[in-house]
Amino acid sequence: MRINSKYLFLTITNFCFMYNLDWKNLPFGYVKTNYNVRCYFRNGKWGELEISSSEYINLHMAATCLHYGQEAFEGLKAFTGKDGRIRIFRCDSNAGRMFDTARGIIMEPIPHEIFREAVHRAVKLNKQFVPPYGLGASLYIRPLLIGSGPEVGVKPAKEYMFMVFVTPVGPYFRDGFKPVDIMVCRGYDRAAPLGTGCYKVGGNYAASLASLELAHNKGFSTTLYLDPKEKKYIDEAGPANFFGIKNNTFITPDSKSILPSITNLSLQQLCNDLGIKVEKRPVLFDELETFEEVGACGTAAVITPIRKIVDPDTNRIYEYCCEGQPGPVSTKLYNKLLAIQNGDAADMHGWVEFVD
Ligand SMILES: Cc1ncc(COP(=O)(O)O)c(C=O)c1O
């Protein structure tokens, strides 16, 4: 482990800085923290974890991440419980997904143990940036894997850089757990039918920006993507998975072009625990009118209840929720998952890891 020579000085400076953080009004955005953790794959092997206080990466101009999109990232969170202990939610699942993503775009996968160690170390080193219990805020953890070796022809890099940085974030929606309106998007796809939609690679997000901008400009919170092949099935709700509720059943799309959401998997498990049936299957767009509740799920907001889905091509509006309030099943699932993350409910499935 290499510690930057400014380590001590920065610790003291940043310790003072952190007390100026306005925990109650944290944005869902980037706030500088003290350290990040890095690891390099060179000469066929991963090196030791290194600690850096720099927010910048020194990169070769021909690095494959810059030209051929060899880039993968993850997003997970750490929370402070009422007991003051810091909990990281489902670190292993994120490690597994990053491993699969790396394989999917022929990058050197980051071994689980290195991923886990780097995440824990990044949280521990920035402990004072984990927001206190009870404000809906958390420490967002962003692991990043990039092809750093130079190539000019289209081929995978021989060198990789893995890093983990963290940033304290407020709740994704400032107004809390309130339903939003979204817009059907047929003019854009975020992923191809057999493309990289099931991996967490930057290219998918670049492909989604134009449609998201369009939706935001029209006053919608996000877009509803349909399957890229036939536009018959529901794929995802912006950068989140989609679910619908009817007849005490949680229904969520099975599609090759969507990201396997860890929040969605957690909600499915909670449904099993709570006696709610789960169906993971292709979901016809025409089924929208039959749902009692619909929502989007992901790490950022856990559940975003959806009030209205507007289809600009047919002028149809699908409406949900009771008087602007989230539906009862969504509310129950949301509260339960949050309680586990915050340590207010028992962690029956071993999802939480402590940073002590
Ligand atoms: C495209 C996309 N779908 C779904 C999700 C939700 O995944 P998770 O629950 O693992 O955050 C995300 C967020 O990571 C996403 O970017």
Q: What distance lies between the first and last C-alpha atoms, to the nearest angstrom?
A: 20 Å
Instruction: Flag low-confidence runs.
Output: 1-17
Ligand inventory reads: pyridoxal-5'-phosphate
SS summary, helix count:
7
- Give me the Rg, rounded: 21 Å
**Average pLDDT across residues?**
94
Estimated structural class: alpha+beta
Number of strands: 18
Give the biggest sheet: 9 strands, antiparallel
Shape: globular
Q: Per DSSP, what share of the residues sits in E-state strands of 2 or more residues?
A: 25-35%
Quaternary status? single chain
What's the order of the H and E elements? Answer: HEEEHEEEHHEEEHEEEEHEEEEHE
Helix content: 10-25%
Characterize the structure shown.
Helices cover 24% and strands 27% of the residues. It has 356 residues and is α+β, with helices and mostly antiparallel strands. Residues 1-17 have low confidence and may be disordered. Helix 3 packs across helix 4 and helix 6 packs across helix 7 (328-341). The protein binds pyridoxal-5'-phosphate.
